[in-house]
Amino acid sequence: MSKTATYHTTVRWTEEHWGHLEMGNGPQMAFAPPPDAQGYENAFTPEDAFVAAANTCIMLMFLWATKRFKLNLLAYECRAEGTKLIELDRTERFTHLRLYPQIKLATNGEREEVLLARAQRALQTARKYSLVANSVTSEISLEPTFVII
Prior knowledge:
Order of helices and strands: EEEHEEHHEE
Number of helices: 3
Low-confidence stretches: none
Number of domains: 2
Strand content: 35-45%
Mean pLDDT: 96
Largest sheet: 4 strands, mixed
CATH topology of the largest domain: GMP Synthetase, Chain A, domain 3
Oligomer: single chain
Number of strands: 7
C-alpha cells in the first residue's frame, strides 16, 4: 500500500525583493531573486534552492546506496548547475540539471574495475530513487569522477 508524507514551508515578504523562508523542520533564511531577475548578489534564491534540492537529494540517496552496495566511501563532493531557459514572453524554466560528483572510494583489496562498476550502479540507483530528481521535468545528467585508492 502506498504512503504519503507532507512537507511544509512558509515564506514572508520582508522588504523590496526580499523574503524570509521558514522550513518545516526548523531552518530559516532570507531569500531574494538572482541579479538577472531584479535581485541581489550573494542572496539565497529559488533557483539555488531548486538546483540544491536535486543535488542534496541525490547525494543522500548515494550515501544510502553505498551501504547497500558495500562501498567504502571516503569522500563525496558534487557541483551542480541548472540551465534556465528564458522564453521570448519572459517565462522561464529549468531545462537541464548537470551534476558533477567527485567520489573517492577505498578498494579494500578489491579489483578496481569491479569496485568502479559497483560504484556506478550505486550512483544510478541514487538517481533512480531520488524523490526530487523524480519530481522535476528537467533533464538530469550525472557526470561523475571516481577516485579509487
